[in-house]
């Protein structure tokens, strides 16, 4: 591995450290237990498409900023309307499904190992309160969790990545952004951060034109970083 000169590691959270679709699907299953797996997956895709589209609208200035919590409520209402559930309490409970996301099998051990040698930050489009509950549920180990809420915008807006630069007190090239989403890494890269792609079943894989510093599964990536820090 080439010398990276990394002082801190910044992790995307949703999809990279935790299985976001699985958590949302579980919430949909509670709302409408009679749905088959195909319908649950379709509704989860509807949810995530709404959130991603509205976040883009906010980044582009098409829509005023609203927190991810508000977008989750909107998405939960869309799902409830699709299955014709008219129960405000059930919709409110479903909106919190994004706070109960299971970690990937290699996440907890990998983060714990890495956190012994580097400052580790989470950087997420999830709200501050969502990150607090997500951390408690999934048992994630990081030294600080940063929310796009503090920048009042969403990734891939450069302002979100600047949060990590500001908090770390390091120049961008001394930070390594790790994500399962190539679009996320491209945005971090444009601000000068080093980048590492980690493949996940729900991620956005690189294109042939992408040139990230590292591309590996999480255990091997952490092993490489760990050895470089010794």
The biggest beta sheet is recorded as: 6 strands, parallel
Q: β content, as a range?
A: 5-15%
**Largest sheet, spatial ordering of strands:** 3-2-1-4-5-6
Number of strands: 6
Low-confidence spans: pLDDT under 50, at least 5 residues?
none
Global morphology = globular
Question: Could you state the order of secondary-structure elements as H and E?
Answer: EHHHHHEHEHEHEEH
**Arithmetic mean of pLDDT:** 94
Rounded radius of gyration (Å): 18 Å
Fraction of residues in helix: 40-55%
Q: What is the SS-derived class?
A: alpha/beta
Distance between the termini: 14 Å
Number of helices: 9
Can you walk through the features of this model?
- The chain is α/β, with parallel strands linked by helices.
- The protein has nine helices and six strands, in the order βαααααβαβαβαββα.
- It has helices spanning 20-31, 37-59, 68-82, 88-95, 107-115, 128-138, 158-168, 182-190, 218-229, and strands at residues 8-11, 120-124, 144-147, 175-179, 194-198, 214-216.
- The protein has a six-stranded parallel beta sheet with strand order 3-2-1-4-5-6, with helices on both faces.
- Helix 6 (128-138) links the parallel strand 2 (120-124) and strand 3.
- Helix 1 packs antiparallel against helix 4 (88-95) and helix 5 (107-115) runs parallel beside helix 9 (218-229).
- The chain starts with 7 loop residues before the first strand and ends with a helix.
- The mean pLDDT is 94.
């Amino acid at each position: 591995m080439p010398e990276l000169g990394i002082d801190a590691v910044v992790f995307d959270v949703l999809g990279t450290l935790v299985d976001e679709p699985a958590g949302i699907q579980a919430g949909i299953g509670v709302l409408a237990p009679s749905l088959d797996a195909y319908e649950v997956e379709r509704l989860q895709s509807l949810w995530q498409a709404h959130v991603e589209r509205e976040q883009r609208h906010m980044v582009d200035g098409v829509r005023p900023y609203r927190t991810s919590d508000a977008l989750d409520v909107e998405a939960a209402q869309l799902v409830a309307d699709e299955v014709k559930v008219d129960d405000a309490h059930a919709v409110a409970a479903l909106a919190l499904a994004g706070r109960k996301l299971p970690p990937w099998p290699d996440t907890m051990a990998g983060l714990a190992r890495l956190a012994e040698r580097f400052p580790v930050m989470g950087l997420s489009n999830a709200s501050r309160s969502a990150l607090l509950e997500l951390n408690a549920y999934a048992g994630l180990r990081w030294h600080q969790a940063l929310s796009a809420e503090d920048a009042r915008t969403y990734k891939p807006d450069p302002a979100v990545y600047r949060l990590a630069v500001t908090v770390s007190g390091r120049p961008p090239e001394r930070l390594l952004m790790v994500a399962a989403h190539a679009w996320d890494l491209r945005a971090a890269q444009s601000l000068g951060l080093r980048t590492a792609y980690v493949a996940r079943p729900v991620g956005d894989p690189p294109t042939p034109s992408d040139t990230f510093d590292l591309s590996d599964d999480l255990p091997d990536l952490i092993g490489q970083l760990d050895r470089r820090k010794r």
